[in-house]
Design brief:
Layout: H1 34-54, E1 60-61, H2 72-76, E2 78-91, E3 95-108, H3 114-123, E4 128-133, H4 135-139, E5 143-144, H5 150-170, E6 175-179, H6 187-201, E7 208-212, H7 220-227, H8 236-244, E8 250-253, E9 272-276, H9 288-298, E10 307-310, H10 320-340
Parallel strand pairs: 1-4, 3-5, 4-6, 6-7, 7-8, 8-9, 9-10
Antiparallel strand pairs: 2-3
Helix pairs in contact: 1-3, 5-6, 6-8, 9-10
Bound molecules: zinc ion.
Length: 347
């Protein structure tokens, strides 16, 4: 995807400008509408690209500037889901949220993000990455009155995601990422059909594929949950062996400041590793040396030509200045380590 060693990439979201959406709020409502909203989203996306490039991010993404939420914005565009008819459900066994209801067969009327991705493609010559929700995380954000089977609904979503992913690829997206935080929670379902549904979503793609599995944004419900996980977070131990044998090319995981034992990366040996070297739950900016230290520890378990320095998760809830400075810290830290590892033969 890129010839440079240790190419940097963000996991996903960036804070939006205050004129586009209320800052430091998840699912913040838009401040514009109609044609102004379309133009505002494009302007925000341009700014996100500009900042990534000037701050040394090698694989550019949209910073989720054109969507409100990483799961619901996709679901909003599907038939079969009723957004008026909401029910309260427990998300990832952690917090209650009012969610839309599946009332009929789900289908994708038209492409959801393809135009936005083509716009991103036109803004940069660097490789671009686009994130979609994973099937299992999608079903966990809905109430289902139609299929009455999480597995059935997941397979339907996987087919829809695959249509979207193929069109994103045709629009010039180099890397397609599926966000599956649900893999850190529902282990039995993940093993029974979750990884298989993810592979179905990624089927036939020439673009590289990534699965992002995290412990969530730095919001209170997630932080409270993390406090119950003990001193060693071994959740990845459940998914990594399956992913190592899967068709997915890369795994995005949390590392810096998390309690994830670094040697768990050994379980995905052979895959590319998007390693979280930036903590998104604190406003403290990492130093380049701290980033470098996290990367050096990971390099014991992943080959240098497979390491992609990254963030632990999205940065949407952070103040804008903090997110931008964290980007700079990420690329400065990666540069330190890049100088230390000898370039392997490029394939
Ligand atoms: Zn995440």
């Amino acid at each position: 995807m890129t010839s440079a060693l240790l190419p940097t990439a963000l996991v996903g979201s960036l804070p939006k400008p205050a004129w586009l959406a209320r800052p430091e709020v998840l699912w913040a409502p838009w401040e514009l509408d109609g044609a102004e909203l379309v133009e505002g989203k494009h302007d925000a996306l341009r700014a996100a690209v500009h900042e990534q490039e000037r701050r040394g991010i090698d694989i550019v993404s949209d910073g989720e500037q054109t969507r409100q939420h990483f799961v619901t914005t996709f679901i909003e565009h599907l038939d079969g889901v009723d957004f008026e008819n909401r029910e309260t459900v427990r998300i990832r066994n952690r917090y209650d949220a009012s969610v839309p209801t599946v009332v009929g067969a789900v289908s994708r009327r038209q492409p959801v993000f393809v135009q936005d991705a083509a716009f991103l493609r036109a803004q940069t010559d660097r490789p671009i990455k686009w994130a979609l929700p994973g099937p299992m995380t999608m079903i966990d954000t809905l109430s289902d009155r139609h299929y009455r089977s999480r597995e059935k609904l997941a397979w339907e979503f996987a087919a829809i995601l695959n249509q979207e992913a193929r069109e994103l690829e045709a629009a010039g997206v180099d890397i397609i990422q599926f966000d599956e935080p649900a893999f850190n929670v529902f282990f039995d379902e993940m093993k029974d059909w979750g990884v298989a549904a993810l592979e179905r979503a990624a089927e036939g793609l020439r673009a590289e594929t990534v699965v992002h599995i995290c412990y969530g944004y730095g919001i209170k419900a997630n932080n409270d949950w993390k406090a119950t996980l003990g001193s060693e977070w071994r959740q990845y131990e459940e998914s990594f062996p399956l992913l190592q044998r899967s068709t997915i090319d890369a795994v995005s995981l949390e590392s810096h400041h998390s309690h994830v034992p670094i040697d768990l990366i050994e379980l995905i040996r052979g895959k590319k590793v998007m390693l979280g070297a930036i903590d998104v739950s604190t406003e403290t900016i990492e130093t380049p040396e701290e980033v470098a230290e996290t990367l050096r520890r990971a390099l014991q378990f992943v080959d240098a030509d497979k390491l992609i320095p990254s963030t632990n998760c999205g940065m949407a809830p952070l103040p804008r200045r903090v997110a931008l400075e964290k980007m700079s810290a990420l690329s400065a830290g990666a540069a330190l380590v890049r100088d230390e590892v000898s370039a392997p033969a490029l394939v």
